[in-house]
Amino acid sequence: MTTDDRPDAPRTEHAVVVSRELDVPPDVAWTAWSDPDLLRRWWGPTGFTCPRADVDVRVGGSTVVTMQAPDEWGGFRIHNRWSFRVVQPPERLAFVSTFVDEAGTALTPGEAGVPATVPVEVPHVVLLEPLPDGRTRLTLTETGYVDEETRAQSQAGQEQCIDKMQAIFAAPDGTGRDAPHL
Fold it and tell me: Where in this chain does the record put each Activator of Hsp90 ATPase homologue 1/2-like C-terminal domain (predicted)?
């Protein structure tokens, strides 16, 4: 099984797949990935903050995000670089996530303070599909995991991140009309 129908696509035996419906059209959902202020509002699992989002969403560009743990967990920071391979607004993003230090120097997962079973490079594909009534189905797929425990930990973290994104775009009346149209 692969993430798409290309023969060179990464295998997905231990894939993380998160899908949510957002109450905004794809062009607005796209801003969750391309607007630094919005990205800082949802990146990181529940209780974590994102004090840094340096965004350059273009093929060959990269985004550097910092996720900070809550004080009760020691307030540690983890920095990731998302190196973009495919940028097709407002439909598809493909990037590889790696760990970096604050200056942007590549780190191994162990050097970054995460389990060594996390891959050095984690391919991601983000699909934004239009739905009726101006809504969007977001599907995020991560691949490269070699064991179920590490995959499950990432799944839980991504679920929480995308839940935070979904809440940003949730309108009180369920239509998305009151969501931030940046």
Answer: 23-169
